[in-house]
Design goal:
The complex is a heterodimer of chains A (269) and B (247). With 269 residues, chain A is an all-alpha fold. Chain A has one domain. Chain A is built from 12 helices and no strands. Chain B has 247 residues and is of the alpha/beta class. Chain B has 2 domains: 168 residues, 3-Layer(aba) Sandwich (Rossmann fold), CATH 3.40.50.300; 74 residues, Orthogonal Bundle (Helicase, Ruva Protein, domain 3). In chain B, helix 4 crosses helix 5. The longest helix of chain B is centred in the C-terminal third of the chain and has 16 residues. Classes of the chains: A mainly alpha (269), B alpha/beta (247). At the A-B interface, helix 2, helix 5 and helix 12 of A face helix 1 and helix 3 of B.
Chain lengths: 269, 247
């Protein structure tokens, strides 16, 4: 165990170099550069509000503003889907290095989640800006309480979940390229399964369907985040227990899978 | 007796040829159901044993498919041997073929730091070597240009400059001295020779026996995964040259 720890300490520079590289390269050659980190979620939220605002936006009138509600969910979902997708491709994309130099291979999925986490943190400023805008220019009630500081917790749980899922996917794609295409479809499904554009109690679902939607760990994480940022109240503790448990389990499975299969990567890359 | 840098002990590597490139589920499933997942064994290396003392320069000769690259992969620690064991003491710097570790959209300067980090060197260390690397590669005017715009010779120069500047204990050179123009070839040979004095251990793969004679003091000749000759560079090169003539 200490051997692995020492190895990570030695290669932590590689971790930071890859994070740095991904962040730097993401918007290089674009005119607006890093500004896209704000602009992109803002514009996509605008589109979603235009499309779904009439259908789902009504019930939240007077309670919270629908665009902010939507932005909260979308930011978290976008981080999860981007980070896991990048992590998924990271090992096969680094084939040329892995074939020649010894590097601890888990650095690649980890660093790709890391760089996405960095841009995600920057993009949270959009949320801050939007809330400020609503506070100053509209009379939609905002419920800003000290609970907003607790929003760090769902974000960290989400980070953990992304690492776990990213590790698992990166192993699977080395052996089966199909996973990449399947996961693309799965992410679309996940977008609609997670209450991003709607509220779960709005749909009036019963029994299995409702249970199925609630089994999605993103549901718990997004709900926790909204509790403390939007509604200014404590979350339902079951959300935390469930999502944290789920995330730790995926990390454990991911690590075990990675450890068991990493020596075979080179034969398939 | 000098310290051992690399000890290769009865190493064998086996590949499952049929099993090697099934990369989609459908194919796997069909083969699984029809029980065509046969294992056709292919031994890329059989029972290889040798040691390299610190400061020795070992030439590795052999025709295509003899197992040279597999052997280097095992020594570099990328491939686990099916049988046997490897002991390596010190930092290994592999010279990647034409800068395989570079990110094409990244500039030369940024790639220097990325590449060094891949070998496990901290950023501060690379900064102290930065000028030396740029000088040696002669890329001062192009160092902020993305590597995708480099010629293959320029990439090789940069890769060589980094791998040698970090002062590794063991340097793996896989047919890299055959790229670049004559001027750079002479310069890089001189650089390697200067590293000999610092006691670097070199593994040198080449088809050019003249180069092996010049640079190495020991050599092995591989054929179909086994060592068929082991001795001084001159002896082994003679055997290799003879084999070439026969074919």
């Amino acid at each position: 165990m200490t051997k692995y720890f020492k190895n990570f300490i030695k290669y932590r520079y590689l971790f930071w170099e890859i994070v740095r590289k991904n962040v730097k390269l993401q918007y290089r050659d674009s005119v607006l550069g890093i500004f896209w980190t704000f602009l992109q979620p803002l514009l996509t939220t605008l589109v979603l509000v235009l499309v779904f605002g009439r259908v789902f936006g009504k019930s939240s009138e007077g309670v919270v503003s629908y665009p902010i509600y939507l932005l909260c969910g979308r930011l978290l979902y976008e981080f999860f889907s981007q980070a896991t997708k990048r992590a998924m491709r990271s090992v096969s994309n680094s084939a040329s290095v892995i074939k020649k130099v010894y590097v601890p291979k888990y650095i690649y999925p980890l660093a790709n989640v890391g760089s996405n986490f960095f841009t995600f943190l920057i993009s949270l400023l959009v949320l801050v800006a939007m809330m400020a805008y609503y506070m100053i220019f509209t009379d939609t009630p905002l419920h800003i309480t000290p609970y907003i500081l607790l929003s760090v917790v769902p974000i960290l749980v989400l980070l953990l979940l992304s690492i776990g899922v990213g590790l698992i996917l990166s192993v699977l794609t080395v052996f089966f390229k199909d996973v990449e295409y399947l996961y693309e479809v799965f992410c679309l499904l996940l977008f609609y399964m997670t209450p991003i554009i709607y509220k779960l109690d709005q749909l009036d679902l019963k029994g299995w369907v409702s249970l199925g939607l609630k089994a999605n760990p993103l549901y718990s994480i997004v709900s926790m985040f909204r509790s403390c940022v939007l509604f200014g109240e404590m979350w339902d503790w079951n959300w935390l227990y469930y999502s944290l448990g789920f995330s730790l389990l995926t990390v454990a499975v991911g690590m075990a899978l990675f450890y068991k299969k990493q020596d075979k990567f080179i034969l398939y890359l | 007796m000098a310290k051992t840098a690399i000890a290769v002990d009865q190493v064998s590597v086996m590949f499952n040829l049929n099993n090697e490139k099934i990369d989609n589920i459908k194919e796997y499933f069909i083969k699984f159901v029809t029980r065509k997942l046969r294992f056709k064994e292919f031994w890329a290396l059989r029972d290889i044993s040798f040691t390299v003392a610190k400061g020795e320069r070992l030439g590795i000769l052999g025709f295509n498919g003899a197992g040279k690259s597999t052997l280097l992969k095992v020594i570099a620690g990328v491939l686990k041997p099916t049988k046997g064991s490897i002991k390596v003491s010190g930092v290994i710097a592999p010279m990647l073929e034409l800068g395989a570790g570079f990110d094409m959209n990244y500039s030369g300067k940024e790639n220097i730091f990325l590449y060094a980090a891949t070998m496990g060197y901290p950023r501060r260390f690379t900064e102290s070597k930065y000028d030396e690397i740029v000088d040696f590669s002669e890329l001062q005017d192009f160092i902020n240009v993305p590597v995708k715009n480099y010629s293959s010779g320029m990439r090789a120069r940069l890769g060589f400059a980094i791998a040698t500047a970090v002062e590794p204990d063991i340097l793996i050179l896989d047919e890299v001295l055959s790229v670049g123009d004559a001027k750079f070839r002479i310069k890089s040979e001189a650089k390697i020779k200067s590293m000999f004095e610092k006691g670097v251990t070199v593994l040198f793969v080449s088809h050019n026996t003249d180069q092996v004679r010049r640079l190495c003091n020991k050599a092995i000749l591989l054929d179909k995964g086994t060592i068929i000759a082991l001795g001084t560079a001159d002896e082994v090169c003679d055997i290799y040259d003879e084999k070439v003539k026969k074919k």
